[in-house]
């Protein structure tokens, strides 16, 4: 794919083995890295898009799949930046693609952006598809789909559906999975900035994992 080949011509010369090793270690050695630090990568991305333009929407699915197939994590980060720039052009037809990306080379660094930004924005703009989209994710054996179902309202603030948030959290009570309990705490902590009393009451009346409860109240305890 020409677009990806052109991107590689920009990224590959910036590889830095000294930076790559600690970046790989930070991600528990799950992914290879070129070693391009975030500020540099963002600058390269900005310059590349300015020079090459954004891809046509008809090639976006194949381009994203190609980016997620790359062994070095910087290409997935580029994909996230690309999706963010194209967010307003995404429609419910792109939800299967976003699900596929959640399930591909899954870890918190990509899943959380896909959930909180891309999926979240789509389901807010197209509420009619929300419940049918979330239903299989909420019941999935895949923890990353369940984490997505928990976190998609992360930036909703006053648009948060409290009934849905409560239901999704309660479905995951008793989980021993760190990434599920952390997500519960995170979404509650973020919502506490909008509805502190609701979050306090929810924490007090719900048998949350200690990690979730601790994370949920962290912002309120500082303010």
Characterize the structure shown.
With 223 residues, the chain is an all-alpha fold. Helix content is 67%, strand content 0%. Helix 11 packs parallel to helix 13. The longest helix is centred in the middle third of the chain and has 18 residues, at 108-125. It is globular and about 55 Å long. The termini are far apart. The mean pLDDT is 98.
Ranges where pLDDT stays below 50 over 5 or more residues in a row are: none
**Strand count, sense and closure of the main sheet?**
none
What is the helical fraction, as a range of percent?
A: 55-70%
N/C terminus separation: 50 Å
* Alpha carbon gyration radius: 19 Å
Q: Strand content of the residues, in percent?
A: under 5%
For this entry, give a set of tags:
223 residues, mainly alpha, globular, 0% strand, 67% helix
Write the layout of secondary structure elements.
Elements: H1 2-11, H2 17-26, H3 38-52, H4 60-69, H5 73-85, H6 95-102, H7 108-125, H8 130-138, H9 143-151, H10 162-171, H11 178-191, H12 196-205, H13 210-222
Helix pairs in contact: 1-3, 4-5, 5-7, 6-7, 7-9, 9-11, 11-13, 12-13
Summarize this entry quickly:
The chain has 223 residues and is mostly helical. The chain has helices spanning 2-11, 17-26, 38-52, 60-69, 73-85, 95-102, 108-125, 130-138, 143-151, 162-171, 178-191, 196-205, 210-222. The longest helix has 18 residues, at 108-125.
């Amino acid at each position: 794919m020409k677009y990806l080949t052109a991107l590689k011509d920009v990224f590959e010369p910036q590889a830095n083995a000294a930076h790559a090793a600690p970046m790989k270690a930070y991600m528990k050695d799950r992914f290879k890295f070129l070693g391009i630090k975030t500020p540099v990568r963002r600058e390269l991305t900005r310059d590349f898009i300015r020079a090459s333009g954004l891809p046509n929407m008809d090639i976006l699915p194949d381009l994203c799949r190609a980016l997620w197939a790359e062994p070095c994590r910087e290409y997935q980060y580029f994909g996230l930046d690309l999706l963010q720039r194209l967010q307003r052009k995404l429609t419910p037809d792109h939800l299967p693609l976003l699900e596929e990306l959640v399930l591909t080379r899954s870890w918190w660094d990509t899943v959380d952006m896909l959930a909180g930004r891309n999926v979240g924005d789509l389901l807010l703009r197209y509420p009619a598809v929300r419940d049918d989209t979330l239903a299989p994710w909420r019941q999935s054996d895949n923890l990353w789909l369940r984490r997505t179902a928990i976190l998609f309202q992360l930036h909703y603030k006053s648009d948060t559906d409290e009934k849905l948030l409560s239901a999704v959290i309660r479905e995951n009570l008793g989980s021993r999975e760190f990434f599920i309990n952390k997500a519960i705490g995170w979404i509650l902590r973020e919502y506490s900035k909008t509805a502190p009393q609701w979050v306090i009451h929810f924490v007090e009346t719900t048998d949350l994992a200690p990690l979730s409860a601790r994370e949920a109240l962290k912002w309120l305890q500082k303010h």
